[in-house]
Structure formats: structure tokens, C-alpha cells
Backbone:
């Protein structure tokens, strides 16, 4: 599966940077605000993509260091070019495997990751790797898609799935954009069981008017049309047209797209035996619009 993910983002890197990165910037800035940086931290971003979040972090930790890791060489090339263009010296981007991080134990003060959890084939191993490379008391910042993500695509696709149900039997529509989309509560529980204490957890919804054409291009830059995987190749052009027709029908009164994202800030505790106690604590949550 990791090879498939690498193939997707090697192929869509430039489109992703052009169509997706700008609309995510406000989310990156929200996460940075919640991290309450001192300015001297050593930070790791896993799944750094074209580098927007890492670069913003590097600008703020002038006495620190930022490392971005991504499985896609095309993404790494884009990110390094951006950092070099503005002469950032406290940042580097390297290819790497999120499940086998090539860093010693307790190497970082902060680890961040955005829009990666739903692509991870072994979430427990991934979180244990983060726990391993974080120093005691270090922070973890996560942005993840909620199960309500891509509601417009899911609404438009329901009729198509019904029409082609023999190909989509057993398919969960929320998971057509990744391996598994986790709820806020599921992520909290997984973090607690790994040894993190949740200090803040909330969801935010970001609304944006888009044409059906731009919306679908943005979705495809993220998924490379993974939602068409069950459809035979010879039928895909027909289904693409039907999907565009459904989105166009929805947009007669204006297509307002909604990106619903989960934000979680956690702290690595020194003693792992605390995890059960921490999991029973109530977690602060808030919802923004």
C-alpha cells in the first residue's frame, strides 16, 4: 500500500501544491498557534508533502530546527526548492517511511502530522514510532480528516455507487479517500493507549465556494481518483462524466464545499503505565466554524 501512496503523490505533487496547499494554510496556522512554540524546538513533520507547514514552523523556530519526512520524492523536491528559494537554513526535507523513522529515540521536541492518518496501514505502529522519537514531555500535533470529510463528493457519488453497486459491494464511502478515516474519539483513544495525554482536541469546519471542476480537481490531486478503483477501466470515463453531472446539479444554487478537520494536541508522558489513567480523563473539545 505504501508504494501505491508514493505513486499517487509522485504523480500529483504539483497539482496538490497548487490546488490543495493554499486552502490548508489556515489549518496549518491554527495548529501552529495551538503548539505554543518557544522558538528553539527541534520539530519533525511526518508526511510533509510540499512543505508548507514545515516552512511556517521553521520561520518561527529561528533557534531551532525542522525536519520534514515524506514518502514521495516529488514532494521532497518541491519542498526543498521552496525552502531554498527563501534561504531557510534551519530546515531539511528527506524521503522516509512513516512506519520506520530513521531517527534515534527521543530526538525531537515536537512531532506534527497533517492529513496522513487515513493513509497509514498500521496506525498503532505509526503512533509508537512518534512516541519513540519524541522526548519526554514532547508535543504531538495532529490534523486529520473527520468522517464527514468530502461530504459533497460523497453525496454526489451515492447515486453512482447505487447504479454500479455490483462493483462497490462492501465499500465504505468515507474510506474512498484513504485506507481508514478515524473519528476524533478513535484518535484520542489510540493516542492515550500509546502513552500520550490529550491536552486539546477539537474539530473545525472550513467552507469555500468552488466550481464543480475545481472541486473535483482538488479531490483528484489528493486521491488520484482512488474512488474509481472498483470501476472497470473501460467504464471510468463514463463514471467521471456522471460524477461531474451530479456535482453540477448540486451547484445550481452554488456549491459550498466543507472541509471538516480534527485537531489534537498531545504530550508524551514519561511513564507509559500512566496511559490507562490518562485515557479515563475527560478531554477538552471545542468546535469552530
Residues:
Amino acid at each position: 500500500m505504501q508504494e501505491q501512496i508514493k505513486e499517487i503523490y509522485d504523480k500529483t505533487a504539483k497539482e496538490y501544491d497548487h490546488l490543495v496547499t493554499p486552502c490548508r494554510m489556515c489549518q496549518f496556522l491554527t495548529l501552529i498557534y495551538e503548539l505554543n512554540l518557544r522558538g528553539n524546538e527541534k520539530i519533525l513533520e511526518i508526511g510533509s508533502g510540499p512543505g508548507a507547514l514545515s516552512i511556517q514552523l521553521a520561520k518561527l523556530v529561528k533557534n531551532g530546527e525542522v525536519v520534514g519526512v515524506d514518502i514521495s520524492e516529488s514532494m521532497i523536491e518541491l519542498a526543498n526548492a521552496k525552502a531554498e528559494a527563501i534561504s531557510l537554513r534551519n530546515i531539511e526535507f528527506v524521503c522516509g517511511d512513516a512506519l520506520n523513522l530513521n531517527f534515534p529515540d527521543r530526538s525531537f521536541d515536537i512531532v506534527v502530522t497533517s492529513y496522513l492518518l487515513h493513509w497509514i496501514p498500521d496506525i498503532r505502529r505509526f503512533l509508537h514510532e512518534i512516541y519513540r522519537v519524541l522526548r519526554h514531555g514532547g508535543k504531538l500535533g495532529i490534523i486529520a480528516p473527520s468522517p464527514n470529510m468530502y461530504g459533497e463528493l460523497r453525496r454526489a457519488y451515492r447515486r453512482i455507487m447505487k447504479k454500479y453497486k455490483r462493483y462497490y459491494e462492501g465499500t465504505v464511502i468515507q474510506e474512498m479517500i484513504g485506507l481508514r478515516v478515524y473519528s476524533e474519539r478513535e484518535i484520542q483513544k489510540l493516542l492515550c493507549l500509546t502513552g500520550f495525554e490529550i491536552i486539546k482536541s477539537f474539530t473545525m469546519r472550513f467552507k469555500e465556494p468552488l466550481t464543480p471542476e475545481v472541486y473535483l480537481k482538488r479531490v483528484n490531486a489528493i486521491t488520484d481518483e482512488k474512488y474509481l478503483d472498483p470501476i472497470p477501466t473501460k467504464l471510468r470515463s463514463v463514471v467521471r462524466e456522471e460524477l461531474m453531472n451530479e456535482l453540477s446539479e448540486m451547484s445550481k444554487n452554488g456549491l459550498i464545499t466543507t472541509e471538516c478537520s480534527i485537531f489534537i494536541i498531545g504530550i508524551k508522558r514519561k511513564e507509559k503505565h500512566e496511559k490507562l489513567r490518562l485515557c479515563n480523563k475527560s478531554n477538552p473539545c471545542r468546535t469552530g466554524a
Observations:
- The chain has eleven helices and eight strands.
- The radius of gyration is 19 Å.
- The chain has two domains: 2-147+182-208+259-288, 150-177+211-254.
